[in-house]
Amino acid sequence: MLAAAAAADDLPVTADVRLQHGDTVSVGSVSLTVVALRGHTPGSVALAVDTGAGIALFTGDSLFPGGVGKTGSPEDFAWLIDDVENRLFGAYPDDAVVHPGHGDSTTLGTERPSLRTWRARGW
Q: CA-based, 20 to 30 A from 1: which of 19, 44, 51, 122?
């Protein structure tokens, strides 16, 4: 079993592999890059894959159309918005497609103009 290193000790099963930011996970012939996005939970991660037609980002509950996911404190929000801004918006192109854990997909380019607003409102 694979689990984010920051969450592995809190799981009811033992993780065989503890994932760190930047690790690569292979599923068949597909390689996914682990992007740690602390804040929603300590072990939140996104997975990034180059589909050949562009980048797909599977962001779970960390990034949605219109903002980042729920956090439990201002400190957690700061971690999440910093990680989302640096590790997603700072690392991937505007045409990267964001697939959240639920709801509609979007692109980084669609959401990028709202980063300052999200930070100011604190969610």
A: 51
